[in-house]
Amino acid sequence: MGRRLFKELERSYGFDEVAIVPGQVTINPELTSTKMTIRDLEFEIPIMASAMDGAVSPRFAARMHEMGGLGVLNGEGLYSRYDDPYSVLEDIIATPQEEVTEFLQQVYTRPVKESLLTAQVQEIKQSGAICAVSFTPQNAKRMSPAAVEAGADMVVVQSTVTTARHESNSYRGLIFSELIGSLRVPVVVGNCVSYGVALELMETGVDGVLVGVGPGAACTTREVVGVGVPQVTATLECAAAREDYFRKSGRYVAVITDGGIRTGGDICKSIVSGADGVMLGTPFAQAEEAPGRGFNWGMANPHPELPRGTRIKVGIKAPLKQILYGPTSKTDGTQNFVGALKAGMGMCGAYTIRDLHQAEMVIAPAIKTEGKFFQMGG
Amino acid sequence: MGRRLFKELERSYGFDEVAIVPGQVTINPELTSTKMTIRDLEFEIPIMASAMDGAVSPRFAARMHEMGGLGVLNGEGLYSRYDDPYSVLEDIIATPQEEVTEFLQQVYTRPVKESLLTAQVQEIKQSGAICAVSFTPQNAKRMSPAAVEAGADMVVVQSTVTTARHESNSYRGLIFSELIGSLRVPVVVGNCVSYGVALELMETGVDGVLVGVGPGAACTTREVVGVGVPQVTATLECAAAREDYFRKSGRYVAVITDGGIRTGGDICKSIVSGADGVMLGTPFAQAEEAPGRGFNWGMANPHPELPRGTRIKVGIKAPLKQILYGPTSKTDGTQNFVGALKAGMGMCGAYTIRDLHQAEMVIAPAIKTEGKFFQMGG
Amino acid sequence: MGRRLFKELERSYGFDEVAIVPGQVTINPELTSTKMTIRDLEFEIPIMASAMDGAVSPRFAARMHEMGGLGVLNGEGLYSRYDDPYSVLEDIIATPQEEVTEFLQQVYTRPVKESLLTAQVQEIKQSGAICAVSFTPQNAKRMSPAAVEAGADMVVVQSTVTTARHESNSYRGLIFSELIGSLRVPVVVGNCVSYGVALELMETGVDGVLVGVGPGAACTTREVVGVGVPQVTATLECAAAREDYFRKSGRYVAVITDGGIRTGGDICKSIVSGADGVMLGTPFAQAEEAPGRGFNWGMANPHPELPRGTRIKVGIKAPLKQILYGPTSKTDGTQNFVGALKAGMGMCGAYTIRDLHQAEMVIAPAIKTEGKFFQMGG
Amino acid sequence: MGRRLFKELERSYGFDEVAIVPGQVTINPELTSTKMTIRDLEFEIPIMASAMDGAVSPRFAARMHEMGGLGVLNGEGLYSRYDDPYSVLEDIIATPQEEVTEFLQQVYTRPVKESLLTAQVQEIKQSGAICAVSFTPQNAKRMSPAAVEAGADMVVVQSTVTTARHESNSYRGLIFSELIGSLRVPVVVGNCVSYGVALELMETGVDGVLVGVGPGAACTTREVVGVGVPQVTATLECAAAREDYFRKSGRYVAVITDGGIRTGGDICKSIVSGADGVMLGTPFAQAEEAPGRGFNWGMANPHPELPRGTRIKVGIKAPLKQILYGPTSKTDGTQNFVGALKAGMGMCGAYTIRDLHQAEMVIAPAIKTEGKFFQMGG
């Protein structure tokens, strides 16, 4: 008797499974521009730091701005819950590994205070930086007006999985078009991984979508719940939605690959997959300036009943400037992200980020470093 | 000269090779129902504990019922062979690893006694629980009437590989339609892995089929005999049979994925593959209440001449309630199975188990945790 | 500009990448027959021991016959080169690993003596066993008449890669039809891996072909020269040739999968791929009766300039009877090969080896044993 | 809603993912010829040593010629920058690993001197060897006339990624047709990996193209920048370009696979993929005669801001003659490259390198050496 299947499965791909093909023309890296635009906000580099408490404090956000990028502040993080968030950070760092998930679960039960949030936003604005603040869908409608009032230039609405339609009986589902209508600043939402959801989110009027469910170093959603799509395929789907939506509406919505990016190579691959920018957590938590001082944890970590991820020791690696711009003596791709991006653009003959969208990419499994010979470097 | 092959091979997939795509709509986990039905028996959660002696004793079956699930008693296990099965359990646990397969081979030569079986079934019924008892095809016809007589609510007929047609000259092959006609309770049979066999089994009148050959942690059938199909593909095939059979007959037969499930993610993937429920062994053998006290062994283990699997040390991890419902501080998916299932249903916009059948899934190889950076959490 | 390739590559598969699907009908293992026929020679089990000096001595060949199988004697091995091969075996075993390849290279420079070969064949025949002797293509024409004269029942002509047409200027290429015409016993030749070569070999009149280039544990041809085809695909190709040749000629040529077989599962997979029998080296070198006393080395190992493989320590595992027939307490598939084969035949509803050819097989990558949980048994 | 992707990705393959299928005819290795031709230069073996300072000094180039191959001198390496390059080599070797990338970055800031380059070329020519010198595209036009004047027989123009069209505002892009017109010797350029770029380069009049971006042991371009194509697919594309260009123009351009080759098997696979020759770095840096004395580093390593690769300890393995011609007792494919190539040609029935282009190859993932049994040799 023949074989029949309940449904068909298609193959998806992650960063380690692809490689970029050099272009038919090459250009010198100095000729490239890495500018990214989200509605009317322009950034020198298409690189954002994730709204994780171990990565982005108000001071860190200011520093990211100086470097040409954007650090997103977690609007429901320690900075909006505690008068002295830095001493709480100390406590988290000092807690032994086996107790830390429970401690994180407890720390994040303290309620968010609007006055603290306002003060943090003002600190960022006083530094002269563009200020972006992140909220969960449950709290976005209630809390984002205060952030914008205090000066925030961009609102990020983020949960593990976000759709244009969410049903709940504990709170009224957030209606993005209403939120966007009520705020005068750009709104970026996520995370999503498929063509259909990205398209519906774009149709609500958002200015950017965050792409990625499951791939981050500090997140174990894919193991715990089984849900997730590898980043290359997720980005290819959401970028297809952006193109179709642009063709229909004339409005260009930024696609930002968020999670799982470790190297300059991963940044290049995100953009070749169609991203307009990238968001990174762990690599910035490794900066000397990061508030976590070598530790990081995700937004799904302190979930009271089903924590997904935990505090991870990421180490302190280098000053932010060196991570972004080098020079470096590291040869594993974890430093000089902008240099790597410009080198990749040069090899593909891309003057701009949108030119790099046109580059070719192949499926090419990661080089295995088994055996002595390979351990020498690849 | 051209290439020719004796036969064509199709690709199959296991849990670690797929990931669920979030839905177009999301719902809050509180809105989901995880109910499973097998003919007229209803369960709060679609989760069964395998008929393994290290996992399910009568007491454990009672506890599974309190938690909303079902623990299946091995009708040919220690509990039906020994007056004091608990002291035999002690002996198995105390035997050194290098001698244990031989010891198990010997322990299971003691004949099953109907009176002991009856007593065990009565113990489960007295606790108020739904009682399911498992037999091999060789013994099902002879022994299941006694179990039903004693109060069993469901009979499971299970061997490594089961078909509607088995030929033997040492005993007359079990005719399922006869067995079902002679018993007034639901009958679940297995294991099978293909569309054709599942369909034939359904046509005999069974109420559920168990899916899975070879994948369990305590089973090495695939290594020893080369036979087995990875669980995602096996479930996709058997669920296709259920759909076709339902369309033809109007009768809905439960498909239960059995074996190889380690995490909440695997449970979600089983259901997205078309399963109505799941059966787990090792994760329940790890419960504080499990009779094996941190050890487990399968039904094919004590085979006198060709043992497939052995006693494995699984450890004692947590109370059953925490494994099923959390709360937990574990972030690897091995606790709070029901929370994970409800979270996955929420991310896919599924109100019921049958809604979750409609979710999309992609082929996405497991994230490799090679190198330091990845070891931080994936 | 589009992509173009110099040639297309097709996918091939090895044992660890496939799994057998149970049949629509199952039968009890006692009902199965494992008989194999090569022209007029019949064997109780379709299992041969490779002509490797560490595996098959005349005494071992006699023992294999008692067990229902066939041990092939290396006609150009130590037994035909030395008056006291057992003391040379001692020396090989005693040589330190770093010097052993050089020592093997030297040991095999001693010329073969016809009188020694004759004595060894007679020893096997006096035990009552079927006697098979193996030669390289260079020496087969010259040496096989003496072996047959002495009583050999079958001649094997074997080199790493064998075709019906070989060109050389140091010796006249062996013409198989001439050799076969001059000998009254069945001739088995190999090794080959493709449809075309197998078909041409069959057309020369051979009675069996050996399938496999590169896969054995004691062989590194694939690493050194890059040549080799995984065993499942190689067997599927050669079995297709057997079918086509049988349809055309009415003569059935045995296909024997040779190399890379470690478990009962691999034996079952070979036969489902179309093999009529299998040949194993290392698993028999692990028998208590094997002359290598826990060591083994291949025929391509002592090559004077390009050795491919080396002496490997395989260990002494069990008596031959236990390896073939159990009973065993090993659960990794390395013992009770015949029990495993009969179990597999039962699960597939196959009464005979040729029935097992009809079973279905899927591509299913080996279960990875990463992480603690999996290490418990798969 | 259906799935849509921004772009399609095709699969590519590396050495470890393919295997060569033996031919329908086999020949004795003595009958094979391994000759390679680049325009009017003929070499006994199709093997070149990379222009890496740790591998090729003038003395090493002379030795490669004696062995029938070609050692390419780095025209912008230590030998053209320092009066006493050997003492600088000593310093590099003596520098601790953690400081060496910085030290390399500094060492390579010293300017190239034409007089030193001339002296090195003359040293090679005085040995009677064919002399090839390598330059980067930036310096090729300025420096190659001096090299040719001094006696160089071939010019190599090499950078990580090279195209026929490069745009820069710091220097005028090199126009290959001009360079070729101005030099009377063959010009080989690279590296490239795709059909389109290889074809355009051939149309400029070059005599050979180097194939390979990212795969070398001493290079981490693929990790740092994400750019690279596995060598089998890259060679298949560039060889397709050579065939199409030859059909159109009647001129045959040599395709040389450069990077990632570790074994004789990899050399055979390169040629079956369509290469006319191969270039190796690390395996020659392991020769007793290599100037790096057990260390090697690539041309992209000392990049001042984005080093890709580092100094790697490769060890001193054997004299060059043994690496190329054996005899050897090594069985991992790292010695007797020519013996392996001739063995592979014999197994495929190939009298010449171009005959070997016709061999068949299959996709066959590397045998994993997990578990004890496999560790014995494959």
Characterise the protein shown here.
In chain A, helix 4 crosses helix 5 (137-149) and helix 7 (195-203) packs parallel to helix 9 (231-249). In chain A, strand 4 and strand 5 (41-43) form a beta hairpin. In chain A, the strands form 4 sheets. Chain A has an 8-stranded parallel barrel, surrounded by 5 helices. In chain A, strands 2-17 form a two-stranded antiparallel sheet. Chain A is of the alpha/beta class. Helix content of chain A is 35%, strand content 16%. Chain A has helices at residues 58-66, 85-94, 97-107, 114-126, 137-149, 176-182, 195-203, 221-225, 231-249, 264-272, 282-285, 320-325, 337-347, 353-356, 371-374; strands at 10-11, 18-21, 25-27, 36-38, 41-43, 47-49, 70-74, 132-135, 154-158, 165-167, 187-192, 208-211, 254-258, 277-280, 295-296, 312-313, 360-363. Chains in contact: A-B, A-D, B-C, C-D. At the B-C interface, strand 1, helix 3, strand 10, helix 7 and helix 8 of B face strand 2, strand 3, helix 7, helix 9 and helix 10 of C.
Descriptive keywords:
15 helices; alpha/beta; 8-stranded parallel β-barrel; 35% helix; TIM Barrel; homotetramer; disordered C terminus
In short:
By secondary structure, chain A is an alpha/beta fold. Helices cover 35% and strands 16% of the residues of chain A. In chain A, helix 4 crosses helix 5.
Q: Strand content of the residues of chain A, in percent?
A: 15-25%
Shape summary of chain A: globular
Number of strand segments of chain A: 17
Main sheet strand line-up of chain A: 6-7-8-9-11-12-13-14
CATH topology of chain A: TIM Barrel
Straight-line distance between termini of chain A: 47 Å
Uncertain stretches of chain A = 369-378
Oligomeric form: homotetramer
The largest inter-chain interface, given as chain pair and residues per side, is: B-C, 67 and 71 residues
